[in-house]
Amino acid sequence: MEINGELLREQYGYICDSRHVLVEYCKTIGSKDFVNENSSFGRGGSMRNLLVHIVNTYEFWIGKHALKKDIVFTPYQSVENVDEVIGLFQKVDALMSEFIEQIVNPESSEIEFELSDTKRKIKAFKLFTHVITHEFHHKGQILSISRHLGYIPVDTDIMR
């Protein structure tokens, strides 16, 4: 399958636009609420922790496995505010740009990686799909956490 880089860049642009709406909304959240951990939600259960988890997942799959980079993952507690999260996502955007440029090359349509001592192959487009749908899953959790804390969530859908 030939991968259309223009379409991937456009689709990732939609993801970034939706993410921008979410992080702007998170700027309206009180600092204590932003880091408040709720055990009903996975990955540490705070808005901050889930955002950092999204970043770490992009870094794990795209940076480490697809681009074969040495990645130092961000601990949740090292991030204190939304502006720091924005900085992390700028790094993710650079990784995604590099990844998209790599996978439009037909020889790069499959990614080889090792996970749990097992060598595997995955189609690059499947990996792209995984990381963006993973982000949207956790965006929903972030909005739910904010609702539980008494905030009125914004619409972060691509179609708004």
Structure, explained:
59% of the residues lie in helices and 8% in strands. With 160 residues, the protein is mostly helical. Strands 1-2 form a two-stranded antiparallel ribbon. The protein is globular. The model has no long low-confidence stretch (mean pLDDT 93).
Helical fraction? 55-70%
**What's the overall geometry?**
globular
Count of extended strands: 2
Helix-strand makeup class: mainly alpha
CATH fold assignment: Four Helix Bundle (Hemerythrin (Met), subunit A)
- Total number of helical segments? 5
Question: Which secondary structure elements does this structure contain, and how are they paired or packed?
Answer:
Layout: H1 5-26, H2 31-35, H3 47-66, H4 82-103, E1 110-115, E2 118-123, H5 124-148
Antiparallel strand pairs: 1-2
Helix pairs in contact: 1-4, 3-4, 3-5
Briefly say what this structure is.
Helix 1 packs antiparallel against helix 4 (82-103), helix 3 runs parallel beside helix 4 and helix 3 packs antiparallel against helix 5. Strand 1 and strand 2 (118-123) form a beta hairpin. The chain is mainly alpha-helical.
